Amino acid sequence: MEKVVVTGGAGFIGSRLAKALLNRGYEVLVIDNLSRGGPYSVPDGARLWVADISRSPIWDAFEGARVVYHLAANIIVREGIFDPHVHFRNNVLGT
């Protein structure tokens, strides 16, 4: 079974991608800080690693992964207007 990592995998799009990958027989690891969802969003069968990709040491998560789908990001535009440093850290440095 090939390992796939989905950052932002507890979000709307990421959770659906994780489910589709599981249905195709992949081993799925979801990395998410759960800021916009909860562990209930992660499909059954996927492993969840709760972490902030811009602050946590997560390199070990990628070991053995065939593919990484990077969907983690701050999505609320209004928050970026009031606190652009947070968006820069998460959306740019986290990548």
Walk me through this protein's architecture:
The chain has 95 residues and is an alpha/beta fold. It has a single domain, classed as NAD(P)-binding Rossmann-like Domain (Rossmann fold, 3-Layer(aba) Sandwich), CATH 3.40.50.720. Helices cover 29% and strands 22% of the residues. It contains three helices and four strands. It has a four-stranded parallel beta sheet with strand order 3-2-1-4, with helices on one face. Strand 1, helix 1 and strand 2 form a beta-alpha-beta unit. The radius of gyration is 13 Å and the shape is globular. The model has no long low-confidence stretch (mean pLDDT 88).
Question: How would you summarize this macromolecular structure in one to three sentences?
Answer:
The chain is of the alpha/beta class.
Which short descriptors sum up this protein?
single chain, 95 residues, alpha/beta, Rossmann fold, four-stranded parallel β-sheet
Topology of this protein?
Elements: E1 3-7, H1 12-23, E2 27-32, E3 47-50, E4 65-70, H2 77-82, H3 84-93
Parallel strand pairs: 1-2, 1-4, 2-3
CATH structural fold name: Rossmann fold
Mean pLDDT: 88
* Overall 3D shape: globular
Strand content: 15-25%
Helical proportion, percent range:
25-40%
The main β sheet shows up as: 4 strands, parallel
The CATH architecture category equals 3-Layer(aba) Sandwich
Biggest sheet strand order reads: 3-2-1-4
Order of helices and strands: EHEEEHH
